[in-house]
Design brief:
- By secondary structure, the protein is of the alpha/beta class.
- It is built from 14 helices and 15 strands.
- The radius of gyration is 22 Å and the shape is globular.
- The termini are far apart.
Length: about 400
């Protein structure tokens, strides 16, 4: 399954958004245009749906409350409800004519006391309505509106497939320093491990056969991307601690071995990205995967992500935010796979999201075969960017 459409109202940067989605989606836009906040809408649904420590109240509170996630640009008359909705499809064709298998929508409001409640919740399957709240039971007991049916095992039997799918959404923005110096900083692994601190733990939890198969695939890529690096292994040192180990060729008869504290930022990020691709079977959210990587590698990342999933029974959906023209230069990327985020200068409008193939000027260039990368990135340059050079 994959998310084929998302609708947002009063969500962070976005007053109202209704955009179709592909299995692979790139997000581009100026700084602070809302790329991370767009991805966070899917993490929000994940946080509601996940069975261990999830739920609506938890999802809202971990973001600082409803006032922190509600759009500041929305007009007061329409800003009372925050709304997130997704359509989930089964088809591999990605045709706009295909009807979604599932629709899940949730609206949220806040009492004057500050407590959050469900203003609407709706589930449909194959155009058949399964759930619409508030219902008569909610009217009799208002406390029920503090929880979604999505998070409740007793109430989501008819659409548990949706709950399970959303709960498996994952996010990765690996920070090499947190992985490399985990012991020194004595850091706790954050919930859902968004920054890759727990990569070693996740590798250890995988069964040996699965782990070795994934590392062979990763090694095949690393050999091309990193000079003299022959293999990536999962090793245990004499003290019983596990490590990511890289085997390097050199003038000696035996290869030299380096653990994660010696591997470069780019190498660690690439290992983390590939591991995340191979372990996940739902939507994977990546932020700026080009960081710390050579431009020659970045140009091939899009194809690399595609090939990394070869042989998987279930190929997951991938959303990637980026500022890199090199990443978008892959000839296999079409205009519908790039979403352009454009903040409005008009008060109350918020950020808009448009497939690049629908933007005048870009559409014509794509039709004559121009690579999308530089064209789209130029579209997102702030209008007054040259003023930066005048800074004293």
């Amino acid at each position: 399954m994959y998310i084929s459409r998302v609708k947002l109202k009063n969500w962070r940067n976005f007053v109202e958004v209704d955009v179709p989605l592909r299995r692979r989606q790139f997000l581009v836009g100026p700084n602070a245009s809302g790329k991370s906040n767009f991805l966070d809408a899917f993490r929000f649904l994940r946080d509601i749906a996940k069975p261990d420590g999830g739920g609506l109240q938890r999802a809202v509170n971990k973001r600082g409350g409803l006032s922190r996630i509600r759009c500041l640009n929305a007009h007061s008359k329409t800003a009372s409800e925050l709304f997130v909705g997704v359509e989930i499809s089964r088809s591999d064709s990605e045709s706009i004519l295909d009807r979604p298998k599932w629709i899940y929508e949730v609206g949220i409001k806040q009492h004057r006391s500050g407590s959050v409640f469900i203003s609407s919740e709706r589930v449909a399957k194959d155009d058949r309505l399964l759930l619409e709240r508030p219902d008569s039971l909610d009217e009799d007991d208002k406390e029920r509106l503090q929880q979604t049916h999505l998070e409740q095992v007793n109430n989501n039997k008819e659409f548990r497939e949706v709950s399970d799918f959303l709960a498996r959404i994952s996010y990765m923005h690996l920070v090499p320093q947190l992985l490399r110096h985990f012991d020194e900083i004595q850091g706790n692994i954050m919930e859902d491990d968004p920054f890759g601190q727990g990569l070693l733990h996740r590798m250890q939890q995988a069964n040996k056969k699965t782990r070795d198969a994934r590392l062979r695939k990763i090694s095949a890529v690393i050999k091309i991307a990193v000079p003299n690096l022959e293999e990536i292994r999962f090793d245990r040192d004499p003290f019983g601690k596990y490590h990511i180990a890289g085997s390097y060729t050199n003038w000696r008869p035996r290869n030299a071995k380096q653990y994660e504290d010696q591997l470069s930022d780019g190498t660690l990020r690439l290992i983390g990205l590939l591991w995340s691709l191979l372990e996940n079977d739902s939507l994977l959210l990546l932020e700026e995967p080009e960081l710390s990587l050579h431009s020659g590698i970045v140009r091939n990342l899009a194809g690399l992500f595609h090939r990394a999933q070869k042989g998987k029974k279930i190929r997951h959906q991938l959303f990637i935010s980026t500022h890199s023209a090199e990443l978008l230069s892959d000839s296999g990327i079409d205009g519908g796979e790039i979403l352009v985020l454009q903040p409005s200068r008009i008060s109350g409008k918020g950020t808009t999201i448009t497939p690049s193939g629908n933007i005048k000027g870009i559409k014509e260039l794509l039709e004559i075969g121009e690579p999308p990368g530089l064209i789209v990135i130029q579209q997102t340059v702030p209008q007054d960017h040259l003023q930066i050079s005048l800074f004293p």
